Amino acid sequence: MHRGNVSLYAVALTVLISGLWWGPYALSAKERPGSPGIPPEKVAAYIYAVIKADRTVYTMEIVNRLQEKGVTTASEHWEQENTLMLPAQFLQQGGKLAAESGSGVRYRLIGLWPIYRRNAPASDLERNALESLRKNPDWPITGIVTSGSKQYFQAIYPDFAVSPACINCHNSHRLSPKRDFKLNDVMGGIAITIPLE
Amino acid sequence: MNPAHPPSRAETKWGLQRKLILSMLLVGVVPLIVGFALAFWQGSREIQTVNGENFKTLAEETARKVDLLVSDEVARTSRIAADPSIIHELEQRRDALLGMTEDERRRSVDELKGGWEAKDPTAVQAITGSRTAGLLQEYFSGAHSEADQLIPQVVRSATKMLYITDIEGTLVAALTATPPVANKDTAWWKGSFHHGVGQLFIEDVHFDERAQTYVVSISLPIMDRIRYGAVGVIHRVIDAKEFFTPSIAPIRFGKTGHVMLIDHRGIVISCPILPTGVPLSNVQLVPLVTPLHAGWVSAPSDGHGGQSTSIIGFAPVTETSRATNGDLSKGSWHTFVWQASDELFAPIRHLLTWMAVFSLVSVGLMASLGYLAANRIVMPVRRLQTAAQLIGRGQLLEPIDIRSGDEIQDLADEFNRMNRQLEAAFAGLTDQVAIKTQQVKSLLHSTDQILDAVPTPIIMVNQNEQVQYINRVGRESFQTILDSTQSIPLFDMLPLDAAVREHLRKEFRRVRNGENVEIASGAEDAFVVNRAHDPLAPAMGTAEPSNRQEIQIAERRYHYQWFHMAGENQGEDRIGLVFRDTTDDSRLQDQLIQAEKSGSLGTLTAGIGHELNNPLFGILGLGEAIEDEANLNRIRSYARDIVQHGRRMAAIIRDFTGVTSRETSDQRQPVHLELELDQAIATLTGSMDPSGLAIQRTYAGDTCVLALPDQLRQAFTNLLMNAIQAMKGRGTLHLSTSLADTSAITTIADSGPGIPKQHLSKIFDPFFTTKGQGEGSGLGLTVARRIIKKFGGDIRIESQEGSGTSCIVTLPVIPLLPPP
User: Fold this and answer.
1) In angstroms, how far apart are the furthest CA atoms of chain A?
2) Dihedrals φ, ψ of A159, to 5°?
3) Which domain, by its residues, includes B499?
4) Does residue B740 fall inside a structural domain?
5) Domain count, chain A
6) I need a surface site. Which of A59, B4, B511, B594 has the fewest CB within 10 A?
7) Shortest CB distance from A148 goes to which of B95, B318, B328?
C-alpha cells in the first residue's frame, strides 16, 4: 500500500505540475484572437491524463491488488500463461488499438534501454527528450516533427517505474540492456503524437 | 476301482506329489508374474514420466532457441527498416503517391509491372539497381553492419527474396529480380502494413512459386522517421528448411529421438525426418501437441506415420508466435520432441526379457526343488498307505518304521498302535464268533431234532409257495426228500384234487396276507362236534369238505393249521403248515357216534317196549279175565279198561310218531304267541283238576311269530305239561311274554322242586326222564326244542333245586298282526 501511495502521489504531482505548466499556454491560446481550437500541447496533456489514469487504475486496482491477494500475477507471456498483461503491455496494447482505430493519435512507450528494439526512440526529438526527462522529469518535452511533407506535434512525458511489476520485468528480462531500475525511476517516456493537419 | 475300466477324466487322481509340486510352483509363479506385471507397469509409467518431462524441457529449450533465431532475423531486418535513407526515400514516395490521382498511381504500377515481368532491363535496373536496392544489398552482405550484426552465411543463403514495397504494396527495391511488383493484396503485406499502423508479420510455412521451395517470411513495416506510420514494408522470404535445419536437425538423441518445428496446423516447418511443408501423419495429434503451453503427452501415434503409443514433448515458440499471421490467435509455432516407442521402451523390454529368462530359471529350480521336497514328504505317506492296506487285510506283521521326526512319524506310531489294538480286538472277536456259531449250529441241530421228533408233518413254505423245510415225518408221509438246491412247490408236493388244492391255495394267500384262517374254521369244527352227538338230528346238508381244516391225502386224513413266521432281518416272511393225522381220531369218533346211536336206539326200543308192554299186559290180563268172566258188568268194566289201555298205547305211539313225522307240514304262518299259549294251557287244564293250580299271566301283548300253529302249540303243551307235572298239579304257574329287539321271549316258570344239577345237561336228550314209569316218554322236551329250533328260536332251561324251573323260549318276532 505504501508503494501504491507513493505512486499515487507521484502521479498526482505530475498531473498538478503539468497542469500548472500548461496552464499559461492554455490561457495564452485562448487569448490569441482568430485561432479557434485547442493547442496541441493541451490536447497532448489531455491524452496523457487519460492514458496515465487508465494505466494507474490498471496497475493499482488490478495488477497490484490481484497480485497481493495471490489471485494471479502479471507476466509478459500472459496469453500462454493465463495471467494479466504487464502494465507496460497494457499501455502499448492501448496505443496499438488507438492507432488501429484510425483516429490519427499515436502513443507509445519508449525508452533508452528498451527490451525490444522497436521501443527505442525513433527520432532525435525522442532521444533528446528521454535524455532530458531522465534529468528533469518534471516537464514534458514537446516539439513539431515532420515526416516528409507531414507535420506532427509530439509530446514526450516521463514514464516512472510505478509498480514493482515494471522493475521486476526490466531487471530480469534476458533482452533487457539495463537491470538496475528502482521503483519510481524514470524508465522511459510516453510519446504522444498528434498529426497537425 | 475296477481295473477293467480305464479311468475317466473325473476319476483321474492327482497324486500328493504332483499337488505339492504344483502348489509350490503356483506359490512361486503367481507372485512372480504379479510382481513382474507391476514392475513393468510401474517402470513403463516412470519411463513415460521421466522421458515426457525431458522431452518437454527439450521442446522448451528448442522453442527458445527458435525464438532467438527468429528475433535475431527480425532485428536484422528491422535495422534495414530503420535506415534513415530508406525511410526518407519511402516518405518521399509516400508524399508523391499522395499527390497523385488514383489513375496515375495505377498507371505507374502497371507500367512498372509490365517492364518488370518482361524483364525489361530498365525496369529491373530501377528496382534492383536503385540506391535503396544498393542499401539493401549492403545490409544483406554486411557492408554496413558491425561485426555482431552480420547476417550469418546460413541465413543469407536461406534468404530467397528481400524486397521493399511502398505504401501501395508496389515493389520499390529488391535484391533479386524474382519478387512480384504488386503486393497490396497479399496477406503478409496487409498484415504488416496494417492500415499504416504497421506490425511485425511472420508468415506460416507455405510453398512459394517464385522461390520454388517451402518458405516462411518476415515482414516488417518501415515506419516514418517519427514512427508515426508505415511508409512501406520490408519483406523477407526465407527457405524454411535451410533456415531452421542448422538449429533443429542437430538436436538428436538415441537413434530416433529428434526435435521438429511445426505450425499450429500441424505443418512441418523443419524436421530431420519429415520433409518441410507436409502435415503430420495423424491429424488427431495436432490439438494434443499445439496448446499454448509446454508439456508432454502420451499420444496414440507418433506423427511420423507410426501408430504406436508415443511420448511427445511440446512447447510453443512464444515470441515468434505472437507475430505469426499478425496475431497469436491466428497462428503459432511449436516444437515437437519425439522418440520412437520401441527405442524409448527398449531398456525396460530388455529388463523384462532378462527377468523372464531368470524367472524361467527360477521356475525350473522351483520345480526341481519342489520335486525333491515333495518326494521327501510323499515317500513316508506312501509307506503309510501301503501299511494301511496291509492292516486292512490283516497282514501287517512288522511295525511301520518311519523316522521323519514330524507329524507323519506320529501318524505311523498311531498306525502301529491302531494295528496292535485291531489285532487284539480281532482275536477276541474271532473266538466269540466261533462260540456263537457253535451255539447257532447246535440250536439249529436241536431244532431239527425237535421238529423231526414231532409226530406230525410240518412244512415251511416261502411266499412263492416253494417248500423250504419239511420235517422227517413230513418227508415220510409225503415221500419227499427236500432237495436244498431244488425247491418244490407246496401244491405239487401234496397229492390233492384240484378243488381242495384251490381251497388250500386261497387259505395260503389269506395267511400270507396276514389274515387269520383258524377262527372261522374252528367255529365250524365246534358245530360239527355238537351235531355229532345227536344221532336223531336230520342232516342239515353236509358241510363242504373244503370248509373244514381237514384234508384227505391218499388214505389218510389230516387236520392242518397254517401259521405265519415273520422273516428275520427283514427277510421274507414264511408260512408254516402243521398237519395232524386225524385218520384214527375220525374212525374212533365214528365208532363212538355209532355206539351212541345204538345205545339210544336200545333205550328207545326198551322205552317203547316198556311203555307198550304195561298196557299190553293189562289188555292181555283183562282179555283173559273177560274170557272167564260171565258178569256182563264186569266184562264191560274190563272192556273199558282195555279201551283205556288201548288209548294209552295209541297215545304212546302218537307221541313217538310225533317225534319223527310232524316234520313235514304246511306252510308257516304268523301265529299269536299268547293265543297259542292260552290254548295249550286250556287243553291241559281241561283234562285235570285245576283247583290246586294258580296260573299267572304277564303278556307283552299281541306278539306274532312265524310258525306252524299246531306244532307251536304242541311245543308249549309239552313244556306246560312238564311244568305242571313237576309241580304235581299244585302250585303257581307263571306265564309271561316279552319283546327284546327282534325276539319274542316266552317264559314258563313253575314253582316245582327244580332240576338237579347233574340232570341239567341231559334234559334235552331223547327219552331222558325223571318221571316214573308210564308218566312220560322222555321225548317232550326233545320234541319241543326241535320245533322251536325249526322256527329259528331256542329253548333254555334255568333251574335251581328247590325253587322251581324256568323254561325260556326265544322266537324271532314278526310285525304285529291283527288278532283273528
Assistant:
1) 57
2) -120, 120
3) 454-581
4) yes
5) 1
6) B4
7) B95
Give the pLDDT score at A141: 92
Identify any residues that bridge with B243 across adjacent strands, giving them in sequence order: none
Quote the pLDDT of residue B666.
Answer: 59
Asked if the Cβ–Cβ distance from B228 to A193 is below 8 Å, we say yes
Name which of B195, B225, B322 is nearest A122 (Cβ-Cβ).
B225
What's the pLDDT at B191?
Answer: 92
CA dihedral B66, B68, B72, B77 (to 10 degrees): 60
CB contacts, 8 Å: B75 with chain A: 117
CB burial of residue B374 (10 Å; 0-12, 13-18, 19+): buried
Residues B695 and B784 grouped into a single domain: yes
A 10 A CB-CB count for A90 gives 20
List all residues 6 or more positions away from B440 whose beta carbon is below 8 Å from its beta carbon.
none
Segment 24-83 of chain A within 8 Å of chain B by CB: 77, 79-81
CATH code of residue B501: 3.30.450.20
Which of B226, B293, B318 lies nearest to residue A152, judging by beta carbons? B226
Q: Of B547, B581, B615, which marks where a domain is finished?
A: B581
Q: Cβ contacts (< 8 Å) between A106 and chain B: which residues?
A: 227-229
The neighbour count for residue B790, using CB atoms within 10 Å, is 17
| β pairing state of B731-740 and B693-698 | parallel
H/E stretch holding B248 reads helix B240-248
> Are B520 and B612 found together in one domain?
no
Give domain status of residue B403, yes or no.
no
Averaged pLDDT, B468-490: 74
Q: Does B86 lie in the same domain as B114?
A: yes
C-alpha cell of residue B636: 264191560
| Structural domains counted in chain B | 4
Q: Are A188 and A170 in contact (CB under 8 A)?
A: no
CA–CA distances in Å: residue A137 to residues A109, A144, A186, B57, B677:
15, 20, 7, 44, 179
CA distance B18 to B165: 92
Using CA coordinates, name the residue in chain B closest to A104: B228
Whether B543 has a pLDDT exceeding 60, the answer reads no
Average pLDDT over residues A165-171: 87
Q: For position B681, which CATH number holds?
A: 3.30.565.10
**Is B304 part of a structural domain of the chain?**
yes
- Distance of alpha carbon B317 from alpha carbon B326, whole angstroms: 15
Please check whether residue B443 lies inside any domain of the structure: no
Q: In what order do the strands lie in the sheet with A186-195?
A: A106-110, A186-195, A150-160, A141-147
Minimum CA–CA partner of B220 in chain A = A118
Residue ending a domain, among B555, B581, B607, is B581
Contact between B230 and B223 under an 8 Å Cβ cutoff? The reply is: yes
